[in-house]
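User: Can you model how magnesium ion sits in this protein?
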Amino acid sequence: MNTAHDRATAAYLGLAIGDALGATVEFMTPREIAAQYKVHDTIRGGGWLNLRSGQVTDDTTMALALGSAILAHGRVAAQPVAEAFDAWMRAKPVDIGNTVRRGLLRFRETGQTEMPENEHDAGNGAAMRVLPAALATLSQPEEVVRLACRTQAHITHNNPLSDAATECLALMVRDAVGGADKYRLLHEHAHPLAGLHPAFTFRAVRQQANPSGYIADTVVAVFQALFDTDDFESCLIDVVNRGGDADTTGAIAGMLAGAVYGRAAIPERWLAALDPTIRSACEAQAQALVRL
Ligand code: MG
Ligand code: MG
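Assistant: Here's the modeled complex, given as structure tokens:
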């Protein structure tokens, strides 16, 4: 029996596992991945960032920075979150997206916690880190969830497509943690998102390879992997072997699949391979955020 706590913890561990697994093949093509690994299904480090086995990247560490700021203030507030992101950047993360860097440098210079709306800032950097905002607002009305998503997102990304995806992913996590199966997520969230923004339209028959950091590419790859598979492990293997922005598609798919399938569905070999400090931080934050 999966409780909300169990599913929330699985979402957080899934995020980190997807990041650690996908980072090895980030920016590779499916053909290159197949030539090197046949099927990439082992947390082994390496990749263009030359990671240790089990090491995670910005996707997970930004989420943890957001989670810490939320827990310290009891809610999602722009100023403490911007300060936490800034401190995260000062600690020289292993990787950082251009839009994230630009937003945080602007915060340093001006103290402003909201970027002006920009049609070009439709990267996946705000969506990849949304999990703690979703877990902190599990029992709140939908509008409060959406506001929490935008508050953290707009520090670096202020874009309608980024917002729509970030809010959709948070609501999917909320409903899955509450017990919704993936068919409900498909009909109540994934299809309506594509209805509002055609960029998110996805077809099951056509595999999206080399998904880029553009939020629509990322979300389409994640939705195809989630809705074409029936368990946590297959979902993650499917999405990271598409290559491209594989740490981020892996992280987002792992978050959703963790919330849908629960803690017991996560392969023990992946849990054991994950950096132990990151693993306990994810577990501790998930528990504390759900209790807020
Ligand atoms: Mg990354
Ligand atoms: Mg990435």
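A couple of observations from the model: The CA atoms of residues 94 and 253 lie 21 Å apart. The chain has one domain: 4-291.
User: Helpful, thanks.
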